[in-house]
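Anyone able to model this chain together with magnesium ion?
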Amino acid sequence: MTEPKTKVLLSREEIAQKVKHLAGEVSRDYSGKTPLLICVLKGAVVFLSDLMRFLDIPVEIDFMAVSSYGKSTHTSGVVRILKDLEGSIEGKDVIIIEDIVDTGLTLDYLRENLLSRNPRSLKIAALLDKPERRKVQIEPDYRGFYIPDEFVVGYGLDFNEKYRNLPHISVLLEFE
Ligand code: IMP
Ligand code: MG
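re: yes, here you go
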């Protein structure tokens, strides 16, 4: 198999600078609190691990996995919980940590699902936002970058489970 062509969209330096900036906002907004960061597996794992190390407030973390794209680059619109949280979120200040908002279906589902568990507050942090593809009205409270409607990989994001380990974010130019 020949390797697909990729083109760097966001360098590791640009990402680090942005994540640090977002962490500053979160630290300020949650000063005196201990938010629970809920990482949406698997794509957000790199974002979470970088973001949490730039925070200067105490945090808790938990993980959730939902089905999204499966093995294709097109969303099915069906969201399913593959792995649920370890603990209760009742009365907690929750921040969903997500890699990218595309159609918004995943986050819309997650938001409703988590709100039904009675957190004290619920916010969304997404590193990337592809606004052109939105199908439901949802806006992250903390947003890293707006990106064009192209399929990206790296910094946690995959194509068929590959490229998650790239330190930068690249556009996949040829695939399938
Ligand atoms: P949504 O439900 O359409 O907003 O899709 C969100 C999920 O689809 C994200 O959490 C990603 O896992 C995946 N996704 C969306 N766009 C891309 C992309 O460009 N590259 C890799 N994964 C993506
Ligand atoms: Mg994801």
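The chain is about 20% helix and 30% strand.
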